Amino acid sequence: MIAGSNSYIQKPVDFDQFRDTVKDRSLLAGDQRAPEVQRCGRDGNAGTAMTNTGAANDNQLRVLLVEDNPADAELAIAELRRSGFSVSSDLAQGEREVTDCLAAKAYDVVLADYNLPHFRGMQTLDILRNRNLSIPLILVTGALSSVTAVECVKQGATDYVMKDNLARLPVSVRRAMEETDLREQRRRAERKLANKVEELARSNRDLEQFAYVASHDLQEPLRMVAAYTQLLAERYRGKLDENADKYIAYAVEGALRMQALIQDLLTFSRVGRNGFGYTSTDCNAVVEEVLQNLRAAVEQSGALITYGKLPFANAERTQLVQLFQNLIGNAIKFRGQQAPVIQVSGEMRDDLVAFAVADNVIGIAAEHLEPIFVIFQRLHTREEYAGNGVGLAICKKIVEQHGGRIWVESQVGSGSTFRFTLPITSAHEKNGDHELHT
User: Hey, how many other C-beta atoms are within 10 angstroms of the C-beta on 228?
Assistant: First the structure.
């Protein structure tokens, strides 16, 4: 116990003798009988709880009192019962008794004196944490400085109540119970969300595996269909009637288009598989490699491609090459009458690096700015522009797997700017400006 600034050890009170004499105290007036607490640990077990059957069931409260003075414990229980709680309680006076009680029973709240002869109430927090129990602990003490009280709350105590103001104890207990219930609801919600996320991730993995297996296994029979329809066209073109030649041509075209679709689906499903891991990647070197890969298309189209000093990014290099190649390749492919002018830029923003691939080509209508990232989404006929609508879907998948975001800003006839973000590394860029002319 603490009195003022001086501590003292109170003479032990005989619990049984006290319980026999406390029943008629006037301070317990209004109760038909004196409340009782059961001492923990006498036989190595928690005692039997004493319950006031007159209270409502939904106000039942299981209390562990860490207190060396049974009289103070009885006063705390009396105050709780007076406020409408149906209290069952156990009394513990040391570490072993606290441990035994927590091992034997479940409690809603712990009421602990700050200072006992051989134990401090705050040590109960360590026992609760070691047993992974989220039971609120309220200090009920005779004297406690504001500095010490704040420090106790910082260490994990839910609240503190002075023994000369026990009328505040029921309010503190109810608030502690509400906070505990809210924390438990939040934990349940977080667990449920985590399970949903894992379930979604597992579903996505299954879908990717299915796409990979289906597209891989379909290639061989489709190759046979394509080969024999082409052979049929070569051998019998002009030998049958005009309709037969047309039907054979349709079959050949359909088989070849299906082959291209399956190959694109296989490419899409492979994104993120068997990677080499994320490393600090020089994006200038990546763009240089992309321009070498696209050299024939650049020369044919007369494209002018420039790029400034690009930052390093934490990325898988092979996927980054594919990302830039798809974006620059699209700008070359979807051109109008004039030669494409393409500008690649990048800059650091907080913990991300932002890239942009801007062009002067045909542009995209506002209603198509989001759908174009969906796999197999096409805005033009095959007669106008070749392809199956997989390239931008692959770009989106690559960026999102790296923890970034991709979007496009565009107007029909005014060109497009594809923007995406990637994580930054601590590497420094030392490359200068570059330009590629045809």
Answer: 13
